[in-house]
Amino acid sequence: MRTITTKPLDLDNPLWHFARSFYARDGVAPACLTLQNGLGLDIDILLLIVFAQVIYGVVFDGDDLDTVDSLVRNWRDEVIRPLRRVRMRMKDGFALIPAPISETLRTRVRAAELESERIALAMLWNWLSARPRRGAGSLAATAVVRQFAQHFDVRQSAFPADVEEAILTLSKAIRTITRRAK
Predict the structure, then answer these.
(1) Which residues contact 42 (CB under 8 A, 6 or more apart)?
(2) DSSP state at residue 7
(3) Are 148 and 31 in contact (CB under 8 A)?
(4) Hey, is 160 helix, strand or coil?
(5) Closest by alpha carbon to 39, among 136, 123, 130, 162?
(6) pLDDT reported for residue 1
(7) How far apart are CA 33 and CA 65, in angstroms?
(8) From its phi and psi, is residue 120 left (phi > 0), alpha (psi between -120 and 50) or beta?
């Protein structure tokens, strides 16, 4: 029987720090939530591809996106999304349990959801840090986000106006940090 060894997860990694900083930028959180809620996209993967582009000049191709999606798919589907559903369901309270009473528990669920996202980012960081650096590339900021959205959006139609606005907001934030990184 072959034993598979994996690199321990480093929860305090450069991707996590970048993700926190980028997500806190003006307009980024609502734009990410629009892509997440409107298209069902995994924002941890978006944060990874933005990080790889801005910090390393690495542009992911479709195979890379499929690989990272399969890497975190089970964790996302079995841990992150159920925690998110519970948190969102608790937002307005329940028939016999008003929101003010359940808010303490909802806050703990939110913290667990954030920790689960941090674990996903650590998994993605392990993959990126072990990945051989292929030739660096460059995509316009809008193309980075649009490529991500198009790769995972199965509708193959034009994006709704709110998604287009989110793409533009994220692209602006990417351009800003790209200029500062140079």
Answers:
(1) 36, 69, 72, 76, 152
(2) P
(3) no
(4) coil
(5) 162
(6) 45
(7) 20
(8) alpha
Token digits of residue 124: 């993605």
Q: Are 99 and 93 in contact (CB under 8 A)?
A: yes
Beta strands per DSSP E along the chain: none
Q: Give, in order, the Cα–Cα distances in Å from 162 to each of 25, 30, 32, 33, 146.
A: 18, 11, 11, 11, 13
pLDDT, tens only, 28-46 = 999 999 999 988 899 999 9
**CA dihedral over 32, 38, 43, 47, signed as positive or negative:** negative
Report the chain's C-alpha Rg in angstroms.
17
Cα distance from N-terminal residue to C-terminal residue, the chain: 48
Query: 140: pLDDT confidence band, cut at 50, 70 and 90?
Result: confident
The tens digit of pLDDT for each residue in 93-103 reads 777 887 788 88
The whole-angstrom separation of Cα 11 and Cα 166 is 28
d(CA 40, CA 144): 17
Closest by CA to 163, choosing from 149, 176, 152, 177, is 149
Q: Give the pLDDT score at 3.
A: 44
Is the Cβ–Cβ distance between 60 and 150 less than 8 Å?
no
